[in-house]
Amino acid sequence: MLDSGLGVPGVGWNRVQAEAAKFMRVCWYDRAGYGWSEASSAPRTSLQIAKELHVLLAAAGEKGPFVLAGHSFGGYNVRVYNGQYPAEVAGMVLVDASHEDQGDREPPALQAMMRDYQKSLKRQAMWAPLLIRLGITRFGQRGEAGGPGVSKDFAKEMQYLQLQPKYIEATTGEMELFSLESANEVRAAGNLGDKPLIVLTAGKNVDASQLPAQIPEQQMDDFHNVWVNELQVKETHLSTRGKQIIVPDSDHMIPFERPDAIVDALREVCAAVNADGKSSATEKASGG
Questions:
Q1: Is it the case that residue 265 has pLDDT exceeding 90?
Q2: What separation in angstroms does the CA of 105 have from each of 159, 222, 225, 278?
Q3: Cβ-contact 239, 196 below 8 angstroms
Q4: SS3 (DSSP) at 275
Q5: What strands lie across the sheet with 197-202, from one edge to the other?
Q6: Which of 122, 124, 144, 258 has its CA at a distance of 20 to 30 angstroms from the CA of residue 247?
């Protein structure tokens, strides 16, 4: 089960799903307000999202235990899901996943920029329904060129999905509750015990030319070192069988730039889960 990063509709998993489906049953979904899902008036915390996913899986007739994969903010959600429904989770892949302590470790300039960004999101959410209906927001888009791992056609599809008022309201709600409520829910979720876990970490830092003028390059370099060598390493300690794999030629958007790395991680975790199942069956058969 695949859970996207903040702001990324479920179709962002398409390249991963196409390959992983060759050896496993794999699904992605749109959180409330994203893509083709209806909006929700409930607070957009990781706990609420985990509960909604639980209801969705039950309604769809899907039975666990599941291997969960979460990218970025999706990493929060799958960890909280495991805390709420541990019997339904067999293993996990965290894809450059958010860490509950990252806000305290971010450089001051980045913290200030994020505060400004949250304010702009609130303004965007307030005016989005009118601007979208008038066509002003759509006219102002300039993302047709795509990007690494993103075709022009796919970029247009993503733009269409991201120009809906319900999407803007959902992402604004998730962002507002990310650093406090959702982070605290992740802290309270506990660890994974001995469940197979792979932590994929983006090894490529943000290019200096893409940094906002107010964020010094050295600060981002220092934070990247903290991200790779401290926060992501802490995530491997969530399981006694945790393992970090650094993806050196990808930045944060691993699902687009290196979907094959995620597919390989899913294959490895599923193999470990299946091996565990066979071992348990053998022990039962032998009276162990």
A1: yes
A2: 32, 10, 11, 42
A3: yes
A4: helix
A5: 2-3, 66-71, 89-95, 197-202, 242-247
A6: 144
Q: Closest by alpha carbon to 242, among 234, 252, 250? A: 234
Contacts of 285 (CB under 8 A, 6+ apart): none
96, with CB counted inside 10 A (0-12, 13-18, 19+), is buried
Alpha helices for 90-213 (secondary structure H) = 102-105, 108-134, 136-139, 152-162, 165-177, 183-188
Q: Are 68 and 250 in contact (CB under 8 A)?
A: no
CB neighbours of residue 117 within 10 Å = 12
Which two tokens mark 156?
A: 């247009």
The mean per-residue pLDDT over the stretch 128-139 comes to 41
- 177-205 residue pLDDT tens: 998 999 999 999 999 999 999 999 999 98
Nearest Cα to 183, choosing from 275, 102, 265? 102
pLDDT at 136: 38
Kindly report which listed range (50-54, 156-160, 202-206) carries the lowest average pLDDT score: 156-160
